[in-house]
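Budget justification, computational time. The allocation requested in the original proposal was used primarily to generate structure tokens for proteins on the priority list. As evidence of use, we reproduce two of the resulting records. The first is shown immediately below.
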Amino acid sequence: MGHSFVPFWALGALNMSNNEEIQNTEEQQAEATEERVDSTESFEEKVESLSAELEAALKEAETQKDVAIRAKAETENIRRRAEREVSNASKFALERFAKEILAVVDSLEKALELPSEGDTANPMREGIELTYKLLIDILAKFSVEQITPLGDSFDPEKHEAMIMQESDEHDANSVMHVVQSGFSLNGRLIRPARVIVAKGKAPEIDEKA
């Protein structure tokens, strides 16, 4: 069996071809590696960019949340302040009206303190009593309460002492007479009751001692 003869120049060409293929393969592998590196770097950049955008969005959301909370709190404060001002205005207007009406109450009380004379005075007195009671009831409907502390201990928060008198019939520091009724509006004093307060009798001095 004979051997085929390959010319020398053919071997050289074959080696050159193989070398070119190897070089091309290495270049292709290098390019592929560079593409993978570029792709990896591009992906990381995108992740960093998205993370930054997410963080910025979270900060903005937190800021808007704080703004919304403050706005809600401010709105609530305004609502409460408006309600308080309306309530105070209503109470102040009612207080002024009540104080004006108290002059009528005082006049009726003074009329009832007058002694009755004759039969003709009785119907008139009854009319005054009914009018007085009706007026007191109407005031009570609007939370205007009468203060008549006869027999109670003197309270400087609600009573105004006109004078103090010695008395054997009343406890010391108790109200023995109401000169003028007091009144309160919604639990707040608008006029103290003017009273005479009892005090203990001074000890007697034995002149013979």
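The second record produced under the same allocation is shown here.
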Amino acid sequence: MKKITVILAVLGVSVSALAQNIGVVNARLVMEGYTQTRQIYQELENKRKIIETDLSKDEVEIQKLQLELNAAGNPTDAQKKNYQDKVTKFQQKIQAKQQELAGEETKKMQEIQGKINTAVAAVAKAGKYDLVLEFNAVMYTANAKDITPDVVKEINKAPAPAAAAPAAAQQPAKKK
């Protein structure tokens, strides 16, 4: 009798595990399909170009200083120190700008990941999924449904916080 109870218990767990509604989502495709991702990448690229332009001006100044030192033949210690100080300051500026840009990118990507998580949760709740897994983490499943397209639709239907407010402010009020 005890053996039958154990077998039925194991079968019951197996059957209930098979009855679960499982979904998979490809986060990379959701990220690519999210319209705000493209806008953020463009903003970051624009910022990178501005930084490069700023740094290239400083680099030209340092190159001029180096040419002046070379033309002087035998520069003084003060001239050498001035040059070295400018090079050091320039290198520190490069590093600071790189860290600033990387920090901003990390912050933006975390915001997007939060929105993706919210969209996945909304789709999972609406579809009554018991479990949603990252597509690339699943080796094999016969019963999981790919909810990636649904998540992309969900995340894109929410208004963008920065873009939605100005667009609404630009529209004229309707007359009654």
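A brief technical remark on that second record: Helices lie at 2-18, 27-33, 35-72, 77-126, 148-157, 161-170.
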